[in-house]
Design a protein that fits this description.
The chain has about 425 residues and is an alpha+beta fold. The protein has helices at about 5-25, 35-55, 70-90, 145-155, 285-295, 375-385; strands at about 95-100, 100-110, 115-125, 130-135, 160, 175-180, 180-185, 190-195, 200-210, 210-215, 220-225, 225, 240, 255-260, 265-270, 280-285, 300-305, 315, 320-325, 325-330, 345-350, 355-360, 390, 400, 405, 420-425. About 20% of the residues lie in helices and about 30% in strands. The protein folds into 3 domains: about 5-55; about 70-210 and about 310-425, no CATH class; about 210-305, no CATH class. The two termini are about 10 Å apart. It has 6 helices and 26 strands. The radius of gyration is 31 Å and the shape is flat. An 8-stranded antiparallel β-sheet has the order 1-2-3-22-21-23-19-20, covered by helices on one side. Strands 4-26-5-24-25 form a 5-stranded antiparallel β-sheet, covered by helices on one side.
Length: about 425
Amino acid sequence: MINSKTTEYYHASYGSCITFLSEYIANKIYQDRKLNYIIIIFLLAVLIASCFIVRPIFANTMTEPIKTVFVKDKTYLRKNFEENIKNKYANSHVSFPASGIAHIRQIKYINKKPIKINIVEINTKINPNLDIKPQIASDNLNAKKTVRSIAQNKRAIVAINGGYFKPQTGVPLGALMIDRNVLTGEIFNRVGIAFFDDGEHLSFKMDKIDFDIKAYTKNVMINIDNINQPRMLSTFTLLYTPIWGKISPAPPKNGYNILVVGNKIEKISANPIQFRENSFVISAPRDVINKLTKNNKEIYIDIKIQDSLRGAKHIIGAGPYLVKDSKIFVDTTEQKLQAISGKNPRSAIGYKTDGTFMIVTIDGREKASVGMTLVELAKLMKSIGCEYAMNFDGGSSSALYVDGVIANSAYNKEGIAISNALVVSEKYSDIRLTSL
């Protein structure tokens, strides 16, 4: 867009010079040719000079302040980041698939047994265009795809398998929020990581997830036990939205489903209900359904997250903790994950409070790499500098995609089809022409 003030000055300068020149030539009182030539040359010189002085520009007329990027500073930060990575991971294979992203391959030995490790370090201060967020396999929760498919669909540079899921359907088993839209609720208050994005800076916070979900009418308010999760107890009151799929689950024994469209009660059934646009289903025991429907025609839903994570843009849960406040902290018992504590292929993420984000996979169940226990994984995450770290789904799900290839020794070379992933992509602001 052309700056209006610049344009007016441009036309005024040119116009005044041209008008004066034409009037002078047409005036017959000036008969002295030598003097005429001198004046004409002078006016032409002024005209040419004005071309350079008021040269028009294409100006950005947006009201927000224009960011200044100093190329030398940015280059220095990138080179410093790369040198620090090379020094930190000496004797390892190091590559840089994008600005601000380092990929490290190394082999460690525990009790003389080899372990193949892939580490990705991400620094969004080096490259503010980097974006880290969870993604699901498809448009609904009942779907599975490989990490490569999810990554390529989102044009990711890096991707890793995410939280736990139900193998038969692909429904995530744990908290998942994308772009401030709660897709699934937490299980056993397991740990998750929240991503905060103010448009300029990306930051992280790890905590146990606790969504507070309520349904209310003009007369009553009830607690919702979970959202878009398989039923664990017949006494639970569950909320389902269209992202679950085309049809809701069946209600509990002696219970009912309520179809609510545009906050108005449309249907009560003892069977699964087909979703409609702008609808949700409450599945609950009979006494809860009676409370909600008695003398009521409308139901509203309210979802809040705990204060510590308020303002988060994305959340993905899994567990257990590995590192907390820079100390090894593996809470498998509290998070009911004792069964996965042995040597296995692993996926994990962590971060430092300076904004550095880490992604790690451990190969296992093979002669060339025996895998790690959760405690061994926690020690590794602490050793590479994580102040907070957590375990992702591992085993045959563990897969790391880097710059177009699966970097770890994933099951079946590609890893199994999974429910959700954490992807790292590069976002670009609109290109704006600032001068000719």
